[in-house]
Model the fold of this input.
Amino acid sequence: MKYTTLGRTGLRVSKLGFGASPLGNVFGDTDAKESLRAVHCAIDNGINYFDVAPYYGRTLAEARLGQALAGKRDKVVLATKCGRYDSDSFDFSARRLRESLDESLTRLQTGYLDLWQAHDVEYANERQIVEEAIPTMREMQKLGKVRAIGISGLQLRMMRRIAEAAPVDAILTYCRYNLLIEDVDELLTPFAETRGIGLILASPLLMGVLTEGGPPRWHPASAEVKRAGARIVRFCAERGVRASDVAIGHCIAHRYGAATLVGMATAEEVLQNIRAAAQPLDAEMIEGLRRTVGSVASLPWPTGRPENQDFAEMQKLA
Ligand code: NAD
Done:
């Protein structure tokens, strides 16, 4: 396993990070014992970076991860989030964030977090994130309850504006750097790099689109993106390789992203993905795959408030 430093935080993270949203049954029911095994298998095989949130399974993922990490806390870089609590429940007020932190620490059975992130900021008022949430998070950092702070979301332009107005240590993006969509490099990477902000690239499998099992029923991508994903899976299968391996290798090879977060539910997936992360990138294969799949209108889907969308086309849909 390779490790890098997340921006200027001093946190050394494994290039492949463990996304713990499946522990909250986000992609279908995950067996409690198997998820425990998955976490232990990840640690035993060099993954040290774990990402979770109170929202995943409405606290279930944090509680399961906390149990799995008992006695192993010093081996990991532990990240969770605040401000989002359900599909339509958000609260980024100072009071709620302080409470939320203590609740997360209890569930995760730890005295501090390595990284604490405002979750899906596009659902919030931008001024509140800049003027209330981030200053509160910095306060918690001064108290030693968190080592670094960040923001996460799908809409990149808003996250850039926020980080310009109220500096953060890390930005977590998802579904914006993968075999079908790569626009993080246009909208955010150069900015993050210039400022030394740690960049985390999540969901390289496009939340299941780039796997043989395909996306979950709730997946918000367009039918065109899903069809293109299925073409990629087929292209890989015809060549005897797994699309998930190619997709993970591609994301890990990003020139600035410190870590790639993959959601993992079983020890088998963990071992498969660790092998994928260690493989050299097959640039020719990716080139061929792109030629075969052709161009796809790769706009992401709308999330959050209309005014926070990356593109005008998405404002109308939000
Ligand atoms: P993903 O692209 O990592 O896909 C996860 C899905 O792929 C799960 O169903 C998983 O079981 C499956 N999978 C994993 N490895 C596989 C393999 N080898 N073969 C077949 N299937 C495999 O999407 P994700 O889980 O949404 O994203 C990764 C993590 O990033 C999340 O768990 C979460 O921690 C983080 N994340 C954060 C935000 C945010 O903060 N707003 C948003 C999305 C993701």
User: Anything to note?
Assistant: The mean pLDDT is 95.
